[in-house]
Amino acid sequence: MKYFVLTLGCQMNLSDSERLTTVFANMGFQRTDNEEEADILGIVACSVRQKAIDKVYSRIHLWNKWKKDRSLITFVTGCILDDDKKKFLKTFDLVFGTNDIAGLPEMISQYGIVSPGALMNHHGQKEFWDIDPSYDSNYEAFIPIQNGCDKFCTYCAVPYTRGREVSRPSSEILEELKKLVAAGYKSITLLGQNVNSYGLDKKGEEISFAQLLEEIGKIGDASDHPFWLYFTSPHPRDMTEDVLETMAKYSCLAKQIHLPLQSGDNEILKKMNRNHTLAEYKVIVDNIRRLLPGATLFTDIIVGFTEETDDNFENTRRAMEEIGYNMAYIATYSPRPGAVSSRWDDKVTMEEKKRRLHILSDVFIRSATRFNEDLVGQTVPVLVTGKSRDGKRWTGLTEGKINIHFTSGSELKVGEFSKVKVTENTGISLGGEYTS
Question: Where are the domains of the chain?
């Protein structure tokens, strides 16, 4: 029996899929990338973006056509709003939340497909976080440390798809990390909607995010296997100085921070319900520059949010110039079904949104280029990620997650660290030569 899973959305959904893969493997099913030969067809969906939901409808329409000629089971899980769930119930055989993935064997058996693996493993099936993931890579892995969100930003539907924040037990997180380190994984990322609010839902029962990083740092110091530990995404409201101080103490805690700004205008930030001002955000940036000199800074920006005026936008442009980012994920605002702002008038035209996006992209590229220029001539550690498209050079990532293309006279191994001399600044990426 074979299964096919299409994963849409963010890294959290990708992590959910890795655990879903384990459940299928325990049932004795074989994974396939060819959906036409699968007996079970599923989607890990994302209600946060309308484009992702449109893809779900397109796929299930095709799959239901196939049912006329052969026996199939279809399912959808992931980050789904209640309204979408109700609609999916009419088109999919199974609709369930990610927390119910452990019960998938029983759901499938009710459709008459029972494998020996399903019979053996169902009664011992663990809770979702206890399911060992089947990682898609042998050098990069993601560890979910929490689920849900308590922030209720007005543009976001996540609190309505994943529920309130729930922190995973730190003992489980650290155990999963130890296994990955022992297995030689080099890039490990802690995942959560607001990672730095970890433990706040279990005060007195669980450690804080800074303390979690401290424990990981100790594991790194004691290990013979080097690795870089990342986390995404923190919320400025909960970014405390002790997190930065802990990052400065341990070499395995990568000096890269993704700190979403969303807007550089206080009026828009208030409409977004971000609950911080630009000045408060800049204090965090100043602390990063002071405690982690050389760290790269990434951000998210939304342009054209509902009634964003020219003055509002200008404040964001100015803030981006002043702060200076190494990477900026800039998106034009589009209403998310289920989010509060979807009920408001979207008064900024798409043409104007795109114009503003291009302006901010130019600002980001200039700041990233300035940072990269300082790296030319330096020899830096690089995680080898593959070959360039032409096959003539290797590709990799610096500790700060800057892409680098470099030459090497010898064969290298993907997923290993190498030393590379930076010889060229190519804008938002680098060029270099392998040294050792």
Answer: 2-128, 136-373, 379-434
